[in-house]
Structure to design on (142 residues):
């Protein structure tokens, strides 16, 4: 069965329109969803009210219970550092740009290791990351 994880950009769009329930399995396409620990940290850090925080904590609980929380391993961190260096060299990213990309690179590297497709509204960055590490991604149109 195919597997995918949603990038923070997809969750944030859903939260902005009032959607908080994310099914662990998409019944229409048969895709099994995973939650990246990196995405979880981004969502928790960005929560601005108790209702949003509660929704994100419920999401975490559901994915932990289903044992589908994807946590970067030590090798993912090392690979992410190498990808970051290559991105900086090719695209001349300044320190701020590199810092912004680290989370996306960690998501890509760990998803690639697990064979999970990344779904994101951030096509430009994931396309560039894909030049330096093998992973599958697709764009979620907002």
């Amino acid at each position: 069965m195919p597997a995918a994880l949603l990038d923070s950009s997809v969750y944030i769009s859903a939260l902005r329109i009032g959607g908080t329930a994310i099914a662990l399995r998409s019944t229409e396409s048969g895709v099994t969803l995973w939650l990246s620990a990196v995405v979880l940290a981004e969502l928790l850090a960005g929560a601005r009210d108790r209702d949003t925080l509660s929704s994100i904590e419920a999401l975490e609980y559901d994915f932990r219970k289903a044992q589908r929380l994807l946590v970067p391993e030590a090798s993912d961190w090392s690979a992410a550092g190498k990808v970051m260096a290559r991105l900086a060299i090719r695209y001349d990213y300044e320190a701020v740009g590199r810092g912004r990309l680290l989370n996306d690179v960690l998501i890509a590297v760990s998803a690639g290791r697990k064979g999970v497709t990344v779904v994101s509204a951030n096509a430009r960055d994931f396309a560039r990351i894909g030049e330096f590490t093998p992973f599958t991604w697709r764009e979620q149109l907002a």
Notes: Helices lie at 8-16, 37-46, 50-65, 74-91, 95-114, 123-129. The radius of gyration is 15 Å. The mean pLDDT is 87.
